């Protein structure tokens, strides 16, 4: 009972996994951008890139918020952390809303770029399943 257990992952493992997810996300955005520019044109490609940037910002923001909770659990109970957590969604919704309202870019392309994070996580998960590494 008094034994200290070893963590399942180390900080280096998490950083390596995060770098892999970001690299996969940029790869997905690059492929989607090439496909968008060849099929739908430049505006769609810019929309995909904007969505990819928003996805990356969302990932970084979530990562720093989660690390703050892990370092100091008392911060998890503060209202500031909850506000920051919700503010991510408000910011993304505001950008997508402005893009839609002013018809700056195709909203579908921006949302596709936002989906790059999910695709990157799936690709990294499949890679770790089949290769046994992060």
Share of residues in strands:
under 5%
Topology pattern, helix = H, strand = E:
HHHHH
Shape: flat
Main pleated sheet: none
Total strand segments = 0
Summarize model confidence as the mean pLDDT. Answer: 88
List keywords for this structure.
134 residues; 5 helices; flat; mainly alpha
Topology:
Blueprint: H1 11-39, H2 42-71, H3 79-101, H4 107-114, H5 116-131
Helix pairs in contact: 1-2, 1-5, 2-3, 2-4
Please provide a written account of the structure.
With 134 residues, the protein is mainly alpha-helical. It has one domain. The chain is 79% helix and 0% strand. It has 5 helices and no strands. The longest helix has 30 residues. The model has no long low-confidence stretch (mean pLDDT 88).
Short description:
By secondary structure, the chain is mainly alpha-helical.
């Amino acid at each position: 009972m008094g034994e200290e257990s070893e963590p399942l992952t180390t900080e280096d493992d998490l950083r390596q996994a995060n770098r892999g997810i970001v690299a996969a996300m940029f790869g997905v955005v690059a492929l989607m951008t090439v496909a968008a520019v060849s099929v739908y044109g430049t505006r769609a490609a810019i929309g995909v890139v904007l969505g990819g940037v928003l996805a990356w910002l969302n990932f970084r923001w979530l990562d720093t918020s989660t690390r703050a909770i892990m370092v100091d659990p008392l911060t998890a109970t503060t209202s500031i952390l909850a506000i920051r957590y919700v503010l991510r969604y408000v910011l993304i919704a505001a950008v997508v809303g402005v893009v839609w309202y002013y018809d700056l870019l195709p909203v579908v392309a921006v949302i596709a770029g936002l989906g790059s994070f999910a695709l990157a996580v799936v690709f990294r998960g499949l890679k770790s399943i089949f290769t046994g590494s992060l």
